Amino acid sequence: MPGPPLDRADFPVTGRWAYFNHAGLTPLPAPAVEAMRRAAEATALGGSMAAVALQEEGERVRAGAADLMGVPVDDVAFVKNTTEGLGFVANGLGLGEGDRVVVPDLEFPSTLYPWMALADLGVVVDRVAPQGPGGALPVEAFADVIASGAPPQVVATSWVQFGRGWRTDLAALADVTHDAGALLCADVIQGLGVIPCQLERWGVDFAMADGHKWLLGPEGLGVLYVRGERLDLLRPLEPGWASVAHREEWDNLDLVWHDTARRLEGGTPNTAGTAALGASIDLLTKAGAQEVWAQVDGLCDRAVAGLGAIGATVLSDRSPAGRSGVVTFTVAGADAGDLVATLKSAGFVCSPRGGGVRLSPHAYNTTDEIDALVGAVAHAGAFVGD
Ligand SMILES: Cc1ncc(COP(=O)(O)O)c(C=O)c1O
């Protein structure tokens, strides 16, 4: 039988844990650790003499990230995390009195706060209520809220909801958003790296993700996509030496923006983190986006079937269009936090999120690990109430 699409030998975590928390924080693959070590060593040995090669490596990583997102390389900026990318968009658009933003009512804080924080400027934020136990956000529900008031300037959502994994149809939402004259901002951290992604074709205007979840990268380095024709709508919030067209002409102090998304990167890049993210993206690219998704989707299906068979309740919406790499479940009478702790003591890593236990496997996980987890849940469930 062929092994999983991502080679388990590249993931030291597999020696100790059955790790199902990629919606939280990925364990770094060994090639990423090695790339980070090599970048740090190059700087140790050469200081400024290493910088050019490391910055060239950064451009290679930018191209790899752009391919994964399905966007032109010039539309990608590195950011320190998803939150920074969201802040660049929410604060860079110049929204003010009477402007309106439509968001889901149930979100990760960082996807909401940048918009809510504009209230003191007179920006109104209206919410779309999730539906059913899976927290579904059908595009019609967005359309209803969009139509219920003045035309909004922005619709902002996560691609995949962090708690129970509902996946919003970004292509359909982009159509509805643009028909209303608004821009679509998608936080893609819970989908990028696991679900095949075509942000440009889907019509998304802005998107962002940090590397530390499904991209298998280090913490503190993410990517921001700004559709080329929207770039001039964003006021660069951190202008610096790297923001301009004539980078490194130190005597030229004209403020002429770089004509790509690179203008949003004001200062010195995180070269060691970039090298590590590049190695992680290389693993995903080599495995193949479709193969990665097929493996994770299959593992989630298997978990859903196994958990159902032992009487657990799966909360996640597993409809073909709404599913993702996240499966959240409950066991009657069991507290999710307690269950996560019990599973951890048996060697399984997952999180208490979305009102249950959240599983988020990646493409190096196996069906054997899922079956063992289901066995451990059954065992833990049997002791509930004892
Ligand atoms: C949907 C979503 N957005 C943003 C974040 C946080 O991103 P960052 O820490 O990269 O800013 C998370 C983390 O769990 C998330 O699930």
Structure description:
The chain is an alpha/beta fold. The protein is built from eleven helices and 13 strands. The protein has helices at 30-46, 48-69, 82-92, 109-116, 139-147, 170-179, 199-202, 271-287, 289-309, 336-345, 367-382; strands at residues 18-19, 76-79, 100-104, 124-128, 154-158, 183-187, 206-210, 222-226, 313-314, 327-330, 348-349, 351-353, 356-359. Strands 2-8-7-6-5-3-4 form a seven-stranded mixed sheet, with helices on both faces. A four-stranded antiparallel sheet has the order 9-10-13-12. A two-stranded parallel sheet has the order 1-11. It starts with 17 loop residues before the first strand and ends with a helix. 49% of the residues are buried. The mean pLDDT is 96. Bound molecules: pyridoxal-5'-phosphate. The site of pyridoxal-5'-phosphate has 13 residues, from helix 3 and helix 4. Residues 81-83, 108, 110-111, 158, 162, 187, 189-190, 210, 222 line the site of pyridoxal-5'-phosphate.
